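tool_call predict_complex ligand=carboxymethyl coenzyme *A
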Amino acid sequence: MADTGKTAKLSFGDTELDLPIYSPTAGPDVIDIRRLYADAGVFTYDPGFTSTASCDSTITFIDGNKGELLHRGYPIDQLAEKSHFLEVCFLLLYGELPKAAELEDFEARVTNHTMLHEQMMNFFRGFRRDAHPMAIMTGVVGAMSAFYHDSTDINDPWQREVASIRMIAKLPTIAAMAYKYSVGQPFVYPRNDLDYASNFLRMCFAVPAEDYIVDPILSRAMDRIFTLHADHEQNASTSTVRLAGSSGANPFACIAAGIACLWGPAHGGANQACLEMLQEIGTVDRIPEYIARAKDKDDPFRLMGFGHRVYKNFDPRATVMKKSADEVLDLLGVENNPTLQVAKELEKEALADPYFADKKLFPNVDFYSGIILEAMGFPTSMFTPIFALSRTVGWISQWKEMIADPQNKIGRPRQLYQGETFRDYVDVEDR
Ligand code: CMC
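tool_result ok
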């Protein structure tokens, strides 16, 4: 970060402080408040971290007003159009697009690690069949630290690298197995002659009685979903991974923490919540009723898949995802799928409604990814696991960046305490 030489003046009571201001390569300037408590004895208050930069990073940049998302400087629409998921993984992890030989080597390394330790299958069998796949993913990814001891030492760069490759390689296998277990079908092992997205589709949809031929349009759409979800700066789950990692926890434990955080409906769980909402709406004629509810201040209902904390004009990932959704729907058709018909009509009606335009609420990436995944035949419970496997590379890249940062220290926010002050314990008979 570049020191601008400028300072922000803070004065209260008798205290006068000059706080250094830094300029990032892109985005707003940042006021350094690290010495605030030591020098002035006060904290800052920022629930939800809406004005707080929690770290330095060189991985992802978002300009929410412009609708811009850059990975290592490259815009997401170009990456989604011209690149593919494993190349984007390389870019996020190592900072540059790979040369042809580097990409080949990276793909070979990931491909070599797609299988799970055979004994890990027992973990799946211990869960109830109706367990949510995100519950299984959180458990199984956490359990990886019990199986891959040779890559849990965070101080060894080689072990960090092996753990990273293992997770990128194995998360699709874990997600697919969680799905197979939930539908009572045998696990399908990975096939290393297939690309990353095709392999995942086959592990989900092949059965021993019948092979599964992957349609290239679906494989491309799947790869795009992975690419568009690969990283997203310091969002809730990424911050969770960083916070967990700041204590020195092993990488598998940190990624399991990220998966747990992603599950919430305001974050990665929105794609499932969105599809469930579309199913609840059921038919096109009921859309106005739900739009009215979303606008009603006294009703907590929100249109899931609309709005974003950072993007206040449009979500650039949604623009690409919409194109992909159109391609998939053209291939598979929506005529017989009422949920997809509701989705198309809801998008049209909400975009034409001034309430959503005024509040800058547009369909986000989860709205369109949910539509694609529904059309592909995934149950809604698999939507968030697919988000989790895509985001794993982002979490790992951010975790590696943090571990290598000499300024890294354990994350320890403070609070605005509003509780009782000191009082003496009262014996039970005197209360
Ligand atoms: N439907 C109806 N009204 C909404 C919606 C919505 N989806 N989202 C926000 N609003 C209204 C909200 O009621 C508020 O109105 P007012 O100013 O009158 O009180 C205003 O818009 C601002 O809302 P906010 O909650 O202050 O905005 P936020 O930036 O804190 O929330 C959000 C962002 C994504 C949590 C929210 O838009 C939301 O709950 N959306 C639905 C869930 C969803 O789709 N989440 C996925 C996000 S993208 C994937 C990811 O990155 O994880």
